[in-house]
Design a protein that fits this description.
- The structure holds two protein chains of two kinds.
- Chain A contains two helices and eleven strands; from the N terminus they run H-H-E-E-E-E-E-E-E-E-E-E-E.
- By secondary structure, chain A is an alpha+beta fold.
- Chain A folds into two domains: 1-30, no CATH class; 33-149, Rieske Iron-sulfur Protein (3-layer Sandwich).
- In chain A, strand 6 and strand 7 (109-112) form a beta hairpin.
- The longest helix of chain A is centred in the N-terminal third of the chain and has 23 residues, at 2-24.
- Chain B has three domains: 27-249, Cytochrome Bc1 Complex, Chain C (Up-down Bundle); 275-341, no CATH class; 381-568, no CATH class.
- Chain B contains 21 helices and two strands.
- In chain B, strands 1-2 form a two-stranded antiparallel sheet.
- The chains are: A alpha+beta, B mainly alpha.
- Chain A binds chain B through residues 1-2, 4-5, 8-9, 11-12, 15-16, 18-20, 22-24, 26, 29-30, 63-70, and chain B through 39, 43, 46-47, 50, 53-54, 56, 61, 64-65, 67-69, 72-76, 78-79, 82, 221-222, 225-226, 229-230, 232-233, 236, 239-240, 363, 365-369.
Chain lengths: 163, 569
C-alpha cells in the first residue's frame, strides 16, 4: 500500500524535481558571465615610463546573465617598467582573498590592506598570508599603444590558475 | 526509534492520525479534490521559488530575466510553463470542488467554513493569476496591468488605491516590487491558510460523522490515500502534456508603453472582460464591481441561504450556481469566438508574436541595462542606423530628419527620385545645397540658354527606366529602357557628360550601377575617384580608419533599402 503511494509520490514530485535540477545546475554547464579575453587598450607608452607603478582601469563589454553592458570597468592593473625596461602589468586582485592591492609609494612596495600582505615592486611576496606573488597579466604594445589582457585567477592557491 | 521520535517530536503520532483518519463511506473519487488542491499548491510554491531564483523584479530587468530563464536556461521554460498552467489547474479544481460540495450539500452545518474557505481560495487564486501575469513585464503583462489597475481606479477612493498598489503615479519599478511581494509572499500565505482550513475543517467534520456511527468508515491510508495519489499523478501528467505541447507559457516582447498591444486577460478572466462590453460608460462599474461583488457575496452566503429556504434550498442553490457557471462559460465562449473572427485583433496578435520572436532572438545576446525595449538595439538595423546618424545625417536628409547640404536619401534613387533629379538637379532636395551646379535642369519646356531641348514626360520615363536598368534592378520594362538608351545617346545627349562603361571618366559621374549598394559604397569611401565626381567632389572621404569594409557594406545596403520600402518588407 505504502509502496504504491510512494511510487506515485515520486512521479508527482519528479515533475518539478527534474526541471528544477536542470535549472539549478545551469551555471555549471553554461557560463553566465563573460568579460573580455581580448587585449584592452590602457594608454600610451609614454604614460608608463619608469619603475614606479601606475594604476590603470580596464574597460570592456560584458555579459551578465540577461544583461549586456557596453564599456564597463571590469578590473584594474598596476603597470610599470621592470629593471630591463620591459613593461609589466599585475592584477590588483590579491591572490590571498581577493582584496584590492594598493601601492605604498613611501616604501616602494605593494600592500594588501585587508590582511597585511606585502609585495615587492616586481610582485613577489615579502611578508603576509598571500600564497603566491601578485598575478601578472599579459601586456602587448602596438605602435605606442599599450594593451592588457585581463584575467581573474583562483584565490588562495599556490599555483596561478585562470578562473 | 519511533518511540524516541515520538517522545521528542510527536511526528509518528501525527502520521498515525493522518493515516488512520476515518473516511466516512470509505474511499470515494469525490474526495480527491482537496488532495489535488494541496498537491497543486505545493507544486506552485516550489515552482514559484525556482522562478524567484531567476527573476529580477524591476522594470528594467523583469522582461530580460524572464526571457533568459525561458530561452537560455535548459528546462527554464518547463518551470515557467508548469507554474503558468498550474494556476489554471488550481482554478478548475476549486470550481469542481465547490460543485461537488454543492451537489452533496456539504456546505451545511458543520461545513459552512469549509465552503467559505473554498470560495476564498478561488478568489485568492484568481488574484495570484492576475499578479503573476504582470510580473514578466512583457506586452501582455504590462497592458493587462494597465487595464486591471484602471478597473481598480473606478472604485470609490480608487485613485489613491491605484497609486499605492502601483507604487506611484506611473507603472515602474515599485509596481513590480510590490506586486512581486504580493504574489510571492502575501497571497500564497493567505492561500495556504485557506487550504489548511479546507483540509483540517473537512477532516474534522468527517471525524464527527464517523463518531456518530451511522456510516461505514475506512482508514484514510487503507484506500483513499491511493486514490488521492492516483488523481495527483493524472493531474501532473496532464500538466506536463499541456506544458510540453504548448511549449510553455507565452512570453511577448518587452513592455512598450507606445505599442498599443491588444491586451486580453487570462482565459479565466475573459468572462469579466466580455461582461464589461455590455455596460458602456458610467455603467461600467456594474460589470467590473457590482455583478462580481454580488456573485461573490452569494457564494459566501450559500450555506445560510440553503438553510433558510428549507426544502427548496438545495435546488435553489444548485440552479443559481449552474446559472453562474453557464454565464461564465457563455461569456468566455463569446469572447473567444469574437476574437477568433476579429481580423484586426488577429493581425495585431500576429504582429505581436513576430515582435516577440524578434525581441527574444535579440535577447540571446544580452539586454542593455536600459531595460526591456533596449533589446531592439541589438538589431543590426539599429546599429547601422546609429552609423548613419553619426556619419551621414549632418548633411543628408532621411525621412524628414537631417541636413540639407547634400542630396536627400529619402527614397534614394527610386524612379521618382531619379525623374525629379533630372527635372531639377539644383533643387535643395538634390544638389541645391552643394557646390555642384554643372547639370542643367531638363524640363518639359527645354532651356534656350543652355541649349537644352524640351524633355517630354514619356521621354523622361524612358531615360529613368534606362537608369533603373543601369542600377541593376530586376523589374525593368525592357522596351522602355531600350527607348531610354537611344535618347541617352542621341536626343537627350546624356552621354556627353555621363559615361556608362565601367571605369570610364566623364565630366559628370559615371552612372553605371548608380544607386546600387556597390556604387553607394564607392561614393562613401571616396567620391573624388576620377570616374565619379573627380576633383569637384565635395563629400568627405570615409576611409577604412573611419568605416571598415564590413560596416561600409552594411551602411550602403541600408541607404539602398530606403527606396521602395514596400518591396523589402
Amino acid at each position: 500500500m505504502l509502496a504504491g503511494a510512494g511510487a506515485r509520490g515520486v512521479c508527482v514530485a519528479g515533475v518539478t524535481a527534474a526541471p528544477a535540477v536542470s535549472v539549478l545546475i545551469h551555471p555549471l554547464r553554461t557560463p553566465t558571465t563573460s568579460g573580455s579575453d581580448a587585449y584592452i587598450p590602457v594608454g600610451k607608452l609614454a604614460q608608463f615610463v619608469g619603475t614606479t607603478p601606475v594604476k590603470v582601469d580596464l574597460f570592456s563589454d560584458t555579459v551578465d546573465a540577461w544583461n549586456r553592458a557596453v564599456h564597463v570597468k571590469i578590473g584594474s592593473a598596476w603597470v610599470r617598467q621592470d629593471a630591463e625596461g620591459q613593461l609589466v602589468a599585475m592584477s590588483t586582485v590579491c591572490p590571498h582573498l581577493g582584496c584590492a592591492i594598493d601601492y605604498d609609494a613611501d616604501n616602494s612596495k605593494f600592500i594588501c590592506p585587508c590582511h597585511d600582505s606585502f609585495f615587492s615592486l616586481d610582485g613577489g611576496v615579502e611578508t603576509g598570508p598571500s600564497p603566491r606573488g601578485m598575478d601578472s597579466l599579459e601586456v602587448q604594445t602596438e605602435g605606442d599603444l599599450v594593451a592588457i589582457r585581463y584575467q581573474r585567477f583562483k584565490q588562495g592557491t599556490d599555483a596561478k590558475e585562470p578562473v | 526509534m519511533w518511540a524516541w521520535l515520538e517522545e521528542r517530536t510527536a511526528l509518528p503520532g501525527l502520521w498515525r492520525r493522518f493515516a488512520n483518519h476515518p473516511v466516512p463511506g470509505g474511499p470515494r473519487l469525490a474526495n480527491v479534490l482537496p488532495a489535488v488542491l494541496v498537491y497543486l499548491f505545493v507544486q506552485q510554491a516550489v515552482l514559484g521559488v525556482l522562478l524567484a531564483a531567476h527573476y529580477s523584479p524591476s522594470a528594467t530587468d523583469a522582461w530580460a530575466s524572464t526571457a533568459y530563464l525561458n530561452d537560455q536556461i535548459a528546462s527554464g521554460w518547463i518551470i515557467r510553463g508548469l507554474h503558468h498552467y498550474g494556476t489554471s489547474a488550481m482554478l478548475l479544481a476549486i470550481v469542481a470542488y465547490l460543485f461537488s460540495l454543492a451537489v452533496s450539500r456539504e456546505y451545511r452545518r458543520p461545513r459552512e467554513m469549509v465552503w467559505i474557505a473554498a470560495v476564498g481560495l478561488l478568489i485568492v487564486t484568481m488574484a495570484l493569476g492576475v499578479t503573476g501575469n504582470i510580473l514578466p513585464w512583457d506586452e501582455q503583462g504590462y497592458w493587462a496591468a494597465q487595464v486591471e489597475l484602471g478597473i481598480m481606479e473606478q472604485t470609490p477612493g480608487g485613485g489613491a488605491l491605484r497609486t499605492v498598489v502601483q507604487g506611484g503615479a506611473e507603472p515602474g519599478n515599485l509596481t513590480l516590487t510590490r506586486l512581486c511581494a504580493a504574489h510571492a509572499f502575501v497571497l500564497p500565505l493567505v492561500a495556504a491558510a485557506l487550504l489548511t482550513g479546507i483540509v483540517v475543517l473537512g477532516r474534522r467534520a468527517q471525524a464527527k460523522q464517523a463518531e456518530e456511527g451511522t456510516v461505514r468508515v475506512q482508514a484514510f491510508a487503507a484506500g483513499q490515500l491511493l486514490i488521492d495519489m492516483l488523481a495527483m499523478v493524472l493531474v501532473a501528467g496532464t500538466l506536463v502534456a499541456v506544458t510540453i505541447s504548448s511549449h510553455g507559457s507565452e512570453l511577448f516582447g518587452p513592455a512598450d508603453p507606445t505599442s498599443g498591444f491588444q491586451a486580453r486577460p487570462e482565459w479565466y478572466f475573459l468572462f469579466l472582460y466580455k461582461l464589461r462590453t455590455f455596460f458602456e460608460g458610467s455603467l461600467e462599474p456594474i460589470a467590473t464591481m457590482v455583478i462580481p461583488g454580488a456573485a461573490v457575496s452569494f457564494l459566501v452566503v450559500v450555506p445560510f441561504v440553503d438553510g433558510m429556504a428549507g426544502k427548496v434550498g438545495r435546488l435553489g442553490v444548485l440552479s443559481v450556481l449552474g446559472l453562474m457557471l453557464a454565464g461564465v462559460v457563455a461569456l468566455t465562449g463569446l469572447s473567444l469566438s469574437q476574437d477568433a473572427n476579429n481580423e484586426s485583433y488577429q493581425k495585431a496578435m500576429a504582429q505581436a508574436y513576430t515582435q516577440a520572436q524578434r525581441a527574444r532572438t535579440f535577447a540571446l545576446d544580452g539586454v542593455l541595462p536600459q531595460g526591456g525595449p533596449a533589446v531592439f538595439q541589438n538589431d543590426p538595423e539599429y546599429k547601422v542606423r546609429a552609423l548613419y546618424d553619426e556619419h551621414c545625417a549632418n548633411c543628408h536628409e532621411l525621412g524628414g530628419l537631417g541636413g540639407e547640404e547634400a542630396p536627400s536619401l529619402t527614397d534614394y534613387s527610386s524612379r521618382e527620385w531619379l525623374a525629379a533629379l533630372i527635372r531639377d538637379p539644383n533643387d535643395v532636395r538634390f544638389f541645391g545645397g552643394t557646390k555642384h551646379d554643372g547639370m542643367s535642369a531638363y524640363t518639359a519646356q527645354g532651356n534656350v540658354v543652355d541649349e537644352i531641348e524640351p524633355l517630354p514626360d514619356d521621354q523622361l520615363d524612358a531615360i529613368v527606366e534606362f537608369l533603373w536598368r543601369l542600377q541593376g534592378e530586376s523589374d525593368v520594362d525592357a522596351t522602355l529602357a531600350a527607348a531610354g538608351q537611344t535618347l541617352w545617346d542621341d536626343e537627350a545627349d546624356c552621354q556627353n557628360c555621363h559615361e556608362i562603361e565601367a571605369g570610364a571618366e566623364g565630366s559628370g559621374p559615371n552612372l553605371l550601377g548608380h544607386g546600387s549598394a556597390a556604387w553607394v559604397a564607392r561614393i562613401i569611401r571616396d567620391s573624388s575617384q576620377p570616374d565619379l565626381f573627380g576633383e569637384e567632389a565635395q563629400m568627405p572621404k570615409f576611409g577604412t580608419d573611419k568605416i571598415d569594409d564590413e560596416r561600409l557594406a552594411e551602411l550602403a545596403a541600408f541607404i539602398v533599402r530606403q527606396r521602395a520600402p514596400a518591396a523589402t518588407e
